[in-house]
Write a structure and sequence with these properties.
The structure is a homodimer. By secondary structure, chain A is an alpha+beta fold. Chain A folds into two domains: about 5-170, Ribosomal Protein S5, domain 2 (2-Layer Sandwich), CATH 3.30.230.10; about 175-315, GHMP kinase, C-terminal domain (Alpha-Beta Plaits), CATH 3.30.70.890. The first copy, chain A, contains eight helices and 14 strands. Chain A has helices at about 70-85, 105-120, 130-140, 190-195, 205-225, 230-245, 260-270, 295-305; strands at about 5-15, 20, 25-30, 30-50, 60, 65, 90-95, 150-155, 165-170, 175-180, 275-280, 285-290, 310-315, 320-325. In chain A, strands 1, 4, 5, 6, 7, 8, 9 and 14 form an eight-stranded mixed sheet that branches. In chain A, a hairpin with a 2-residue loop joins β5 (about 60) and β6. The longest helix of chain A has 20 residues, at about 205-225. Chain A is globular. The two termini of chain A are about 15 Å apart. The interface between A and B is medium-sized, with 32 and 32 residues.
């Protein structure tokens, strides 16, 4: 069987996915909306071993052989593809991110999107986009959104078949920039995968879920109208509410660092000074600053003056998964 | 009429007062519980001017003549005492805090408690404690709790007469220390008085209020049993939930500074290392660390190693308002 290589973008959520109604299938508590990123992506090459010589899946991530729980999580995802096809072959998988992992940029989203598409295509399995989205969701919830380019809605749904993402607007609809201020490249002590099970232990969770569902049509309209002044305040509220749920769950998840707070204050000051920029924060300490393309250089210049900013990544809206002939092995 | 001087302690809330059902009388959305502080207090001397030469109230705070909105707020409180007595005389008021104002230590709580008691006594008006507590509440909500020593419950109540504080346990019931890590002495850009009106604009507010009411009997029991391991996690949850409501109100109130987050992470690390200490945060950036008396020196030593800590104040549980012959003028 042929090697298949797929590149998929990460995504940044405007209304976050946080908390699961059914952890076994990553059925979320609320619907979410995201933008797929052009410039933060995972490239994955998959080859199914027809020789039968591989005793188990051989996975390399960012040039390191993957072992332990991380390898087991990917092997379980390959099992899902084996179950769909009836194959029993093991796979060779080589995967590379072009951005730091486990620091609030969703490497699991782009990773499981790329693995789902590459794994199925390499097996000769042609799933329709909704089924691929559902498959990716089983690997990592937010991965289902990276199956599509541009601006994407993940409908919460009721079960495995209906909890899938679909595109709202293509990448060229709106040249919105995500300028990521990296405050820490350290790995998280709690993966977001584990955290989703804790959401319902927070007394604030029910209020956040209700608010997220109310905000969805407003976010959709703001994107339709390319209206950052309407989108921005909702972005910030939703990110703050998600972190409030994280902080007040048991055990509490406190992802923010001092630098996170420094940047939040700075963004509000810059806005007062006339720069139209809003923040959101994923499950990590890094801060994503959303702005128009023409303001991205000014935002980068402002960020460079902050002591806590270690690195800056910039991304535009990007396409859905793309096949490539540049195999990684 | 005689000069009267009263010293009243500030208080630190374990279940916070945040949000008003009726802003005109500071009727709170939820009941609250606090500890009155021995070592952070306001001393106030009041003299009613029978000569009639004073055209308006003359107020000095921390050796500066008070003017503008701050003076008007205190004059309105003196009006309440004039209304109760039928007097029309103006007052000379001199007041001093022994701690920095407007930085998350409730100077308005101790200030309005001292002013209420001194103002009434100087006018020859002997109100019973509940009526004094209600009067102080009209000046600043949390001041009603500083009318009593030790551990105090403010019952939300239904109206001016019933929304009053009462003592639960005397100061010597439990030698619990409040070690305040001062990260900023800067004045707040939004006073907490204004913020209370915003609570109900937060989507998280209803969940926080319900949680606070549920937590009250648990806090009361933990204090009764002097059980810091039971009290501490509730303290932290309630403070985080209050700040979540602040951050997600419209406009948002973001009181935390980078140092606030540095200390929160540090407290949890120290606890992992075996030091029993928990945090709470009032409407400001400073962090109050609650610990047993014997652990207070270790907590102070730990705090001294943090870059963001500018100053440390330490307080034990203190008495209710005390009269003094050491007049300030």
């Amino acid at each position: 069987m042929p090697k298949t290589t797929v590149r998929a973008g990460s995504n940044i959520a405007f209304i976050k996915y946080w908390g699961v109604a059914d952890a076994a299938i990553n059925l979320p508590l609320n619907s979410s909306i995201s933008m797929t990123l052009a410039d933060a992506h995972t490239t994955t090459t998959v080859e199914w071993d027809q020789s039968g010589r591989l005793a188990e899946d051989a996975i390399t991530l960012d040039r390191q052989p993957l072992t332990g729980q991380a390898a087991a999580r990917l092997a379980r995802h390959l099992d899902r593809i084996r179950d769909l096809t009836g194959m029993t072959w093991r796979a060779r998988v080589v995967s590379e991110n072009n951005f730091p992992m486990a620091a609030g940029i969703a490497s699991s989203a782009s990773g499981f999107a790329a693995l789902s598409v590459a794994g199925c295509l390499a097996a000769g399995l042609n799933l329709e986009p909704g089924a691929l989205s559902a498959l990716a969701r089983l690997g990592s919830g937010s991965a289902c959104r990276s199956l599509f380019g541009g601006f994407v809605l993940w409908d919460r749904g009721d079960d495995h078949e209906t909890s899938i993402a679909r595109p709202l607007f293509p990448p060229d609809h709106w040249d919105l920039y995500d300028v990521v201020a990296v405050v820490s490249r350290a790995a998280k002590t709690v993966s977001s995968e584990g955290g989703h099970r804790l959401a319902q232990t927070s007394a604030l969770n029910a209020c956040r879920v209700a608010q997220a569902e109310q905000a969805l049509p407003l976010v959709r309209q703001a994107i339709a109208e390319r209206d950052l002044a309407a989108l921005g305040p909702i972005l910030e509220q939703d990110a703050l509410a998600m972190h409030a749920v994280m902080m007040t769950s048991t055990p509490g998840l406190f992802y923010w660092q001092p630098g996170t707070v420094e940047i939040i204050h700075a963004v509000r000051q810059w806005r007062t000074d006339g720069l139209e920029v809003y923040f959101t924060v994923d499950a990590g300490p890094n801060v994503h600053l959303m702005c128009a393309a023409e303001d991205a250089p000014a935002v980068q210049t402002c960020l460079a003056a902050l002591a806590s900013v270690q690195d800056v990544l910039v991304s535009r809206p990007g396409p859905g998964p793309l096949c490539s002939e540049d195999h990684l092995f």
